[in-house]
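Kindly inspect what follows.
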Amino acid sequence: MTMAVLKRGAKAPKAKPRAAPPRLGQTVTLPMAPAVLRRRVVMAVGGLTALAGVAVAGLLGLPQQLWRDFVIASAASGYEVRHVEVHGLAEQPRLAVYQAALSGASNAMLDVRLDDVRGRLMKLDWVADATVGRRLPDTLVIDITERKPVALWQYRRHLYAIDMTGKPLTDQGLVRFNDLPIVVGAGANRRVREALALMAASPLGADVEAAVLVGSRRWDLKFRSGETLALPDTPAAAARAVKAFAKLNAQGEARLLGGQFTRFDMRLPGRMVVGGPAVAAGLEAAAKAAKAQAQAQRI
């Protein structure tokens, strides 16, 4: 132990100020041992080398090849599509769903692109929506939402079942859709929502057999009893005409439908022009009476 010797009368040496303890949150630099420093330098150099190796491998295409090898190995280990589980089918043929699900580059489970499978499913006629998932190790699970037929579209003497968007769904086995209303004419399928709204605008909707699009601008309603109702151009005016016609048909004992008239024209606001055999016979009788009267006057 070293001891300091003080001479008599000498002043005591001043004590060195003691460093204040570090405050909370203050950074304190501690001396680093040489071994620790060398270890950190080696780790940093190794990390930079690894990053450089990954970059070079990427340029050479090695990661893709490694991934392909991994996918092939996983398929050999059982991660391969061997089952396709489908829910929600009623009209869409099941075989087309299987073909859409298994049309990828391979059947390796890790190689199946679910978005691509869904895209192929969405192209099928009856598919309105689809979800696709994996159940490892070997099953694809598909849930289908089908389109709903709402009408039959007649065009060029051919019938198609269509949904609310007007998309043709099928032209086969239409007997099961006999209760659906019919829309007729070029472009009538794309306006099926408008036609159905007209049929629902009055209690006579159940009596309508078909809605015929005339000149791509207005509708004629064909009733099951054989009559035709000609409607105005705009949907609002057509709806008012249908309601007015239903009200007239319900008044009195003589119904318009099933009576002596076959055509009703309500294209002009507030007016209805009727036609049919009774009208033709009445006009013919009036013409004969006028002719006879003219002859009598000449005599």
Notes: Residues 160 and 171 are 5 Å apart (CA to CA). The mean pLDDT is 81.
